[in-house]
Structure of Ion transport domain-containing protein:
Amino acid sequence: MSSDFYRFAVSSHFSSFPKSFSLRKKVPWWYQILDPRSKFVAKWNRTFLYVCIVALFLDPLYFYFPITGDKACMQTDIVLRVFVTFLRTVADLFFLFHMVLKFRTAYISPTSRVYGRKELVTDPRDIASRYLKSDFIIDLLATLPPPRFQNHVAVVMQIAT
């Protein structure tokens, strides 16, 4: 009975509208603030941990690119150099994306922990200032690739001499 009423009461001009109508705008992903307790953040942190472990074992491989002189007994391995540099660049991109996510992830207010309410701070300025004051320098230094630069500078110095 109600379906007959709906068919006669609603005009066919409104058939193009969606069934659930919302006045809320869809926010683009780059403006969204992430909940630190969400599944996405948990999966990202786990993935980032695995990338950090791989990067930890990649950095010592840069010291296995010995620079040889005229007729020395050691040679450089170009294939290993390219492979390790590629993997480390991918890891650096993960580090950079992690830094971007930290600017967009809310945090629990320190004053609300006392009372057990655990209120999230979602203001982008507060999140950015807290991150810049706490972990930003460490994350930036971890993203910079000193072994690669050291290796490339040594190759350039050898070619120049």
Q: What stands out?
A: The beta strands are 107-108, 120-121.
